[in-house]
Design goal:
- There is one protein chain.
- The chain has 141 residues and is α+β, with helices and mostly antiparallel strands.
- It contains 5 helices and 5 strands, in the order E-E-E-E-H-H-H-E-H-H.
- It has a domain at 14-111: Ribosomal Protein S5, domain 2 (2-Layer Sandwich).
- The protein has helices at residues 43-46, 50-63, 68-71, 83-101, 105-111; strands spanning 14-20, 23-30, 36-38, 41-42, 73-79.
- It has a 5-stranded mixed beta sheet with strand order 1-2-5-3-4.
- It is elongated, with a radius of gyration of 21 Å.
Length: 141
């Protein structure tokens, strides 16, 4: 009986999950020229400023890809949080997808500080207090 050799098929996409504050971003990175779509909109529509553009492109620049749209495309789903928290979640998701694409990228991304998840979140407001830490003024008499 003949045995067939299984060839290792290259995956069609590389996924990464990024979180920041209350934002969760799921990133699917494809190795083909195309657009970066965030919640069925182009990424430039949601993040038009230059500072935002620098933030989501930073993982690509770190691994040596100067024009990510000419080499990659991505589908990104983001939920929760605000605009900046979502952007930072996208950045972490892209970083994790690039690490899955080529594990050799991990060293340069780690040196740039892009692999670390920022755990800081807003502290909740407590009952009978005006804010999370602020207390009602003490009255002596």
């Amino acid at each position: 009986m003949e045995t067939k050799k299984k060839t290792a098929k290259k995956p069609t996409f590389y996924s990464g999950l990024g979180r920041r504050k209350r934002s969760v971003a799921r990133v699917w990175l494809y190795e083909k020229k195309g657009e970066f779509i965030v919640n069925s909109k182009n990424i430039e529509e949601i993040y038009p400023s230059t500072e935002d553009d620098i933030a989501w492109v930073k993982p690509f620049h770190t691994v040596g890809v100067s024009h990510p749209k000419s080499k990659f495309s991505a589908t990104i789903l983001v939920q929760g949080g605000g605009i900046k928290g979502q952007l930072q979640a996208i950045q972490l998701g892209i970083t994790r997808a690039l690490i899955k694409l080529d594990p050799a990228n991990k060293d340069s991304l780690k040196k740039a500080g892009l692999t670390t998840r920022d755990p800081r979140e807003v502290e909740r407001k407590k009952t009978s207090q005006p804010k999370a830490r602020k207390k009602v003024q003490y009255s002596k008499r």
